Target: Fructose-1,6-bisphosphatase class 1
Amino acid sequence: MERHITLGEFIIENQKDFPYAKGELSALLSSIRLAGKVVNQQINKAGLAEILGKAGKENVQGESQAKLDVMANDVFVDTLRNRGEICGLASEELEDFLVFDDEIHKKAKYVVLIDPLDGSSNIDANITVGTIFSIYRRVSKEGSPATLEDFLQPGTKQVAAGYLIYGTSTILVYTTGKGVNGFTFDPGIGSFFLSHPAIIFPPKGITYSINEGNYVHFPDGIKKYIKWVQQFDEKENRPFTSRYTGSLVADFHRNMLFGGIFLYPEGTTAPKGKLRLLYEGNPMAFLAEQAGGKATDGFNRIMEIEPEELHQRVPFICGSKEMVEKAEEFL
Ligand code: AHM
Ligand code: MG
Model:
């Protein structure tokens, strides 16, 4: 039987890529893996455990929280707090970042930003959702509590980023800046196994993902681009195919495997787009670039944008490099 590499083995094996590392990043990735397993298990039995539906509260962005949003947030916060690898955490579900300031955490080098359950409006319909994470080295002094500056770093400073996709299988995809690898969870064994080594974004594809219901609100360039993808051109395989789930993780994952472009532009109802720079845009941009794809707000590389606030939104165009460059020509 072919021997499959577990995520744990892979993390340890690749630790040597970080000459300064003392294993904290590996331990942190292992904590994320553990939290992901717990969330996966909860999601799988959600219909039985009466944890579907709304929590009856809104998050800081004024969006109503699903019970599973709250559950996933608590699992990640508790799991990462219980271990000593980070000094602070920011989440889509929390207005302010959390400072873990007992002695062991204060000495930690890293901070984490997460969207604990992305696409959660889909969950009650049993459609794919995900968890997105982004990891930075702190800029504040080790030994002191984490500060806002630790979280407001441009995406180029990310040490690692990734997502869990809870789909037909559960897959953890991550990068530490040396390519992108995906690991499928085997629920019988309880481990993630390397199933998608060295993922490469096809340079172009025939799929576009956008919430076209917002068409009237889009800038002219985006409207023209949409008309262009729908135009007949046999040589270029147009019209392209439209695929949009309402879960960024799912749309991104499909496009990365098969080639495609995802767009969430600004519009009159969402002047800066909907997606959040720090825990949606940047981690996905890091993965996209590491796989040979591209991510832009239309004019700037996503990862070079200087963040100003924790829950900042950003127009987001991401996918196969040639497709993103074509879209930029229209803007
Ligand atoms: P969420 O983090 O609150 O789930 O919102 C982000 C999600 C993305 O996963 C998805 O791409 C987008 O919102 C869909 O938005 P819309 O319903 O406006 O098309
Ligand atoms: Mg989200």
Notes: The longest helix spans residues 24-44. The chain is about 30% helix and 25% strand. The chain has a mean pLDDT of 93. Residues 92, 115, 118, 280 surround magnesium ion (ligand 2) (CB under 6 Å).
